[in-house]
Write a structure and sequence with these properties.
single chain; alpha/beta; six-stranded antiparallel β-barrel; five-stranded parallel sheet
Length: about 500
């Protein structure tokens, strides 16, 4: 994947002038040694910040070293003004952490009081409206702080990515699809650029790619990926032409931005004019780190991108679609897995999930569209059951009045045959029924959710906090002992 930021993490130790600077310096060296032994490279800034002059020197040093994420490390109490100004002027995500005391035999000259200093640091960050990542328990030994830095890495990737992201959309949302509303104000607040285009612009670009000499090479790549699932070989040249159109558009239009996500159109006129559906192409681009959402779902594309950079893996976008019938639940789930029927549901989309995330796949026609259109213009969807394993269902969304909110729920795809069509899986999330009612319905979320393949709730939650979602607007699947605000206590 070449659409994901690479993070060069730096660490700067800070020191209050009434504490030994050497204490912060030695503790910083211990953190760096631990991090390198466990996780890899980190840039160690030689400047210990004790004043604003030191802050400027440290800032120049980490910038010259090419750092795009930073750890401000309180090796002792720390200078609250200088350390927060460092976070203010550094152009990238910043984490604050502090040193625990090492031993009871050195609590006179060797006591750093960083536990106290973190309080002042957090207070000053709030005063200056500076966002920073503060771990759940931000005071620790060298090994513990190294672990905190590793937890910060996926958050840092997401923030750097968002600050350099352009979302390219094609066409307005289809009629009766207002659920995927996309007020763009919050995109700009997040640091994201958006380029909105007509689907007619895309159609013109597609037609100009007719006869592109690269088409046979892309067709060959598709044939190799599909293998025995290549049930519609006649549509592959058109799909290859469309894939090249999107990739060339990205290169020509990303401008000053480093990373791109696409919110594409796929109905109602797409099939009859292009002569196919774009699902398979969407899956292939997503698999290479360029998320493509369906149905011009701009915040769906945004969520997919966040999931991609956090997980460093392929993601997908699915409808929270249909219930699991009682016969399937009783035959394949009950007594085998610790889920009630209401904890389960089927996540589905027409065929935009990458082949790498399906147990097997086949190229097919889009059955829903084919109910009202000739089957031959609905070819291009990728069908198969989604691979079993851990997942995180999530979404970042702006409300119609431009308020950010988000949800995160960890669960799994069960190894249960769906007996259905499209890209689809049997999902299980603890207390999904209550979550569905009191979060997804109550807070007016659209039916699309992003899916990361693994448990990434911890990092995603921190990303949403960092970008400015208020904590009360970040929802999760609460256990039954913790009722939702709208949950009827007498139910």
């Amino acid at each position: 994947m070449n659409n994901i930021p690479e993070i060069k993490m730096g660490i700067v130790a800070v020191s209050r002038d009434c504490f030994p600077m050497t204490l912060s310096e030695s503790r910083r060296k211990a953190v760096v040694a631990s991090y390198k032994a466990k996780y890899g490279e980190i840039y160690e800034c030689p400047v210990v910040v004790e004043s604003e002059v030191h802050m400027q020197q440290a800032l120049a040093d980490v910038n010259a070293a090419g750092c795009n994420a930073l750890v401000v490390y309180l090796g002792n109490f720390g200078p609250e003004t200088s350390e927060t100004l460092l976070a203010k002027y550094f152009d990238g995500p910043v984490m604050f952490a502090a040193a625990a005391e090492e031993t009871g035999t050195n609590l006179i000259d060797g006591r750093g009081d960083a536990y106290c200093g973190m309080l002042n640091a957090s207070y000053n960050l709030k005063l200056r409206n500076i966002r920073a990542y503060i771990p759940e328990y931000p005071v620790g030994t060298a090994d513990e702080v190294a672990d905190m830095i590793n937890d910060f890495m996926p958050v840092a990737r997401a923030i750097v990515g968002l600050n350099n992201l352009k979302i390219i959309s094609f066409g307005p949302r289809p009629q009766d699809f207002l659920a995927c509303n996309a007020p763009i104000k919050q995109l700009y607040n997040l640091g994201v650029e958006i380029e909105e285009n007509s689907e007619l612009d895309l159609f013109e670009a597609f037609n100009k790619h007719a006869g592109d000499p690269r088409i046979p090479e892309v067709v060959k790549s598709m044939e190799e990926e599909l293998g025995a699932g290549n049930k519609k070989p006649e549509v592959l040249p058109k799909l290859a032409q469309y894939e090249l159109t999107l990739l060339d558009w990205v290169e020509a239009h990303k401008g000053s931005r480093k990373y791109v996500a696409i919110a594409g159109k796929c109905w109602p006129a797409f099939q009859t004019q292009f002569g196919f559906v774009p699902c398979y192409v969407n899956s292939r681009l997503t698999d290479r780190g360029i998320p493509v959402s369906c149905e011009v779902d701009i915040y769906g594309a945004l969520s997919e991108f966040i999931g991609t950079v956090v997980s460093q893996d392929t993601v997908t976008l699915l409808d929270i679609n249909n219930t699991v019938p009682a016969d399937i639940y009783n035959e394949d789930i009950k007594g085998k897995y610790d889920y009630t029927q209401k904890d389960t549901f089927m996540g589905f989309h027409c065929g935009n999930t990458a082949a790498s995330k399906l147990t097997s796949c086949s190229m097919n026609f889009q059955r829903i569209m084919a109910r009202t259109l000739p089957e031959e213009v609905t070819q291009g969807t990728l069908e198969g059951d989604i691979i079993p394993g851990n997942i995180t269902f999530f979404r970042l969304q702006s409300t119609s009045d431009a308020k950010l909110r988000a949800y995160v729920a960890e669960g799994e795809v069960l190894p249960v045959a769906t007996r259905s069509f499209g890209a689809i899986g049997v999902f299980a999330i603890q207390e999904m029924g209550r979550f569905y009612r009191h979060v997804l319905i109550e807070k007016n979320y659209p039916h699309h959710g992003a899916v990361a393949f693994g448990h990434f709730g911890k990092a995603l939650y921190e990303v949403f906090k960092y970008v400015g979602v208020e904590p009360e607007e970040i929802d999760y699947n609460q256990p039954r002992v913790l009722p939702y605000k709208t949950e009827n206590p007498f139910a």
